[in-house]
Amino acid sequence: MTLQEKQTIFEAEYPALFDYAYRYVAYRVPNNNEAEDIVSEGFLKAYKQLHQYTPEKGNLRQWITGIMRYAIIDYWRIQRITIELNEALLLIDAADTAHIEQTIDNRLLVDQLMERLSPEMKAMFALRYIDGLTYAEIATLMNKQPDAVRKFFSRMHNDIRLEMEEQYG
Question: Between 97-116 and 146-168, two packed helices, what is the crossing angle to 10 degrees?
């Protein structure tokens, strides 16, 4: 496949790839502006390296996912959260340690539940709780019926509630 053929395919699939890549990155990066920057830089890099894309090894979506994955890893590698020791001690003293432990336990439980979801379900979760879209907007983006999206979230909330009751009594 020539570079020009690859460019033609890339340009034709760009809108769908961009939507997919944004959801992929936005789920993993908390700030929407930073997610947009990562996706933009990722697509620029992908277009410059299009000569390296080999369709025999996978489709364009898989190749873009790999580029975005490494961009996210680089993003988190660069991020450094620092807090002075005095501030940390004040926060620890002021906070209820039982509440902190409960929060950490809840977060770990949610992470475990999220690992069980398919990529499509994770995308729906990100669209709802990260991007703040309505069920109807999600349904339109995902080519689903709004009632199906509503039922998905209802089942997911119920599963989380049952899991937490089982975990904490």
Answer: 130
pLDDT tens, residue by residue, 71-92: 888 888 777 656 666 666 665 5
Report the length, in residues, of the chain. Answer: 169
Output the pTM of the full model.
0.49
Two tokens at 29? 């990066």
Q: What is the DSSP letter of 99?
A: H
CB atoms within 10 A of CB 18: 15
Give the separation between CA 90 and CA 96, rounded to whole angstroms: 12
Question: How many Cα atoms sit within 13 Å of 151 on the Cβ side?
Answer: 5
Q: What is the dihedral of CA 99, 100, 103, 105, to 10 degrees?
A: -110
Contact assessment for residue 26 and residue 35, using Cβ atoms and an 8 Å cutoff:
yes
List, in order of start, the domains of the chain with CATH numbers: 3-78 (1.10.1740.10), 95-168 (1.10.10.10)
Which CA distances in Å does 118 have to 11, 103, 124, 125, 144? 27, 25, 10, 11, 16
Exposure letters 111-145 (e unless 16+ CB within 10 A, then b):
eeeeeeeeeeebbbbbbbebbebebeebbebbeee
> How many CB atoms are located within 10 Å of the residue 105 CB?
13
